[in-house]
Every structure is written in C-alpha cells, then in structure tokens.
Amino acid sequence: MYKKPFKSNNKDNTKNTKTTKANNTTKTPKSRCPYSKKCGACQMIDTPYKKQLAIKKKRVEELVGKYGKVEDFIEMEKPWHYRCKVHAVFTHDRKGNPVSGIYKEGSHVVVPVDECFLENRKADDIIKTIRGMLKSFKIKTYDEDNGYGLFRHVLIRVGHNTGEIMVVLVLTSPILPSKNNFVKALLKEHPEITTIVINVNDKHTSMILGDKEKTIYGPGFIYDTVCGMKFKISPKSFYQVNPVQTEKLYSKAVELAGLTGKETVLDCYCGVGTIGIIASPHAGEVIGVELNRDAVKDARLNARINEIKNITVYENDAGKFMVQMAESGDKADVVFMDPPRSGSTEVFLNSMFTLNPDRIVYISCSPDSLANDLAIITKNGYKAERIIPVDMFPFTRSVETVVLLTRTKGTTSEG
C-alpha cells in the first residue's frame, strides 16, 4: 500500500473502465489497494466514501426502517488508518523466509501485507520490524499444517490519545530465544513501545490468543482515554478498534439516554465498563453486569482509576441479574445493551421486559440481528425514537447503529 494517505472526497478515486481501440479489450480499473483482490476484508476499498455511507444507510433502512426513521450516518472525517488494534499472522514461504499478513476472508490462507489502509501506521511498521528480526534471531514461524514452529502472531494495541503501545508476541512456547536481546533490538527501532507481552498459544486452534501470558517489558498493559475517561487495556481486553468513532458512538449513546443525574442505569454486557463509566457523571447510580471474569476485574479497576463512586460491577449473566432485580422490587430507569454480533437472546429480552425500564439504548454491530431484536422489543411496549448509524469501519460492509427505545405510555410488557 502507498505511504501517503489517500484523500477522502466526493470524487471517485478509481479510473473509469477504458476500451483500447486497437484490440477492443477492456482494462480493469486498478484498485487503490494492491492486496484487495486477495484479501477481501475491505469490500468497499474503491468505493467513494460518501457512496459507501449511502449504500450502508440503504441497507439499514431496508432492515430496520419500518421501526423508525434512520438518521444520517455519523461519519468519519479521515476514514483511513483508524484501526488501533492490529493483528498479523506469521508464516513462511517455500524457502522458509518469514511472511506476515492477514488471513484471506473466510479462510486461513495468509495474504502477505506490509501496510494496510485501515491499520495504524506505527503498528504496521512495528510488525515489519519484527518480521525482519526473526531470521537473524533464528526464530521459526509456525506451520499450521504440521504444528511446528514458535512464532504464530503479533498483536499491536495503540492508545490513540495516550500514544502508549503494546506488543503481544503469540508463541507456541513461553521461551523466546535470546529474549533480552530481542527486546533490546526491537526497542532500539521503536522506543515508543511501552510494553511487550508473550502470549502462549500451543493449541491447534483458530483462536489467536492462548490462556497464558508473560510480560517481558513494561507493565503488561496500556492506557487510553475515551470521552475524558481513562481505561486500562490488556492483551485480551475488549476495546473498540476505532477510537475516533468510539468517542462519537458512546457520546451519542449517553446523549440519547437523556440522563438528568437521578437515574439508575444498568449497563448490560458491560465488558471493561466503558459505557457505564462514561455515563456515570450524568446518572444517579450505574450498575454494570458482565459474565467474563477478566472483563469484570478490568471494569472495577477502570472505575477506581477514574474515581467513580456511583458504579458497581457484578459478575453475572445480565438476563438472570435483571430478573433478580425485578423480583427484589428494584428498578432501572435506563438500560444500555451492547450485545455480540449475533444479537441478544429471547431469555435476555424477556428478562429486560420483566425489569421494564423507561428507556433502552441499544448499541448494535449488526443491522441483521438488530432487526430481529427490534421486532421483539417493539412488540413488548417500546418504540424506536431514534435510529442513528455510526461508521465505525469505513471501507467495509460493517455498520454500527445506536437506537433509543422508549416505553410507550400506558403499556406493560408482554414478556
């Protein structure tokens, strides 16, 4: 890929298909990305940005437009090099030379990539440096077919606002040959790196990270800030990959909640506590619920880091927790829900209807599952007041949407 960023404007950067008079053959327009045909991750890489938004909005309207007006996209001003979480898979060519890149969409075929239009440039530079170091340190890359080799992946996480950088080396063993010299050589080229972690994945699996970790430089984590709040990011922490748009998404979600400082807010699927912590200055009480134990620990730590006194994080299934709240006579005025791509479950939604909050702020990463859930929610006494798509992943088909649902006056839930 090119070193200079392309300009985002309303003009199509691709050339029109031309026909050569001499032989009447058609020339295929050249893609701005040399890897696009092999990779497949950026389905709209050669589509003008405004046109991308129009295509995505039409899709959202087709799926959820019957529940309310779909507003204009919250777009990105500079929609390139936005990914601050960058993963590279390592393998080798037929001669044994190290190769790094990404998996071809829907496969485990590695497409060699030096620089990606979507990825943080510094992260790409660090990955190239590491790849160049492997041969001199006589480190063998992993072979998925026979299970031999040490070096599997590199994961880079960059704090967009803090500038802190974490490098995660995913190996089949906790022992990195000439570890101290390796770290010293890497830091010489990239002194901006603040921590290096070895993650051990010795299983024949498609999962990137294993269960064991060993910090070999720095604290083993980094910090970043969103909406004025500070968050700890560990190798396995869930943290949105586009920090610029994350700020817009979470700000809009809190705005839609209409908090006055008195409400009890329930943050379901709370992860490391981002939404709940950002909402806390505007609420009376915030309750976070998360099933993942490591995420709960991070959420509690993040609350302490930000000196938030009005938030409590529970390790529990959100659906069960809401039923327990309702049975105890407790109430939540606002529920934030940010389910996985597959959407919510019938059990969860019925539990939420039992709790019967005044407002629901639904953050979705899939218009398809959002449509399925809205069909259920709107039949149980709620109306979609605002539907706002957010472009979290420019040049891809992915769409994030935030929806405000309010309980219809005089109705009760059917759940």
State the main characteristics.
415 residues; alpha/beta; Rossmann fold; 2 domains; seven-stranded mixed sheet; 10 helices; 16 strands; disordered N terminus
Can you put this structure into words, describing what you see?
With 415 residues, this protein is an alpha/beta fold. It has two domains: 59-77 and 242-407, Rossmann fold; 85-226, OB fold (Dihydrolipoamide Acetyltransferase, E2P) (Beta Barrel). 27% of the residues lie in helices and 23% in strands. The protein contains ten helices and 16 strands. It has helices at residues 36-39, 49-64, 121-134, 179-189, 243-257, 274-279, 293-305, 318-327, 346-355, 367-377, and strands spanning 85-92, 98-103, 110-112, 151-158, 165-171, 195-200, 212-217, 222-226, 229-233, 264-268, 285-290, 311-315, 334-337, 359-364, 382-390, 400-407. A seven-stranded mixed beta sheet has the order 3-2-1-4-5-6-7, with helices on one face. A hairpin with a 5-residue loop joins β1 (85-92) and β2. α2 packs parallel to α10 and α8 packs parallel to α9 (346-355). It is globular. The N and C termini lie far apart (52 Å). Mean pLDDT is 90; it is low at 1-25.
Concise account of the structure shown:
With 415 residues, the protein is of the alpha/beta class. It has helices spanning 36-39, 49-64, 121-134, 179-189, 243-257, 274-279, 293-305, 318-327, 346-355, 367-377, and strands spanning 85-92, 98-103, 110-112, 151-158, 165-171, 195-200, 212-217, 222-226, 229-233, 264-268, 285-290, 311-315, 334-337, 359-364, 382-390, 400-407. It is built from 10 helices and 16 strands.
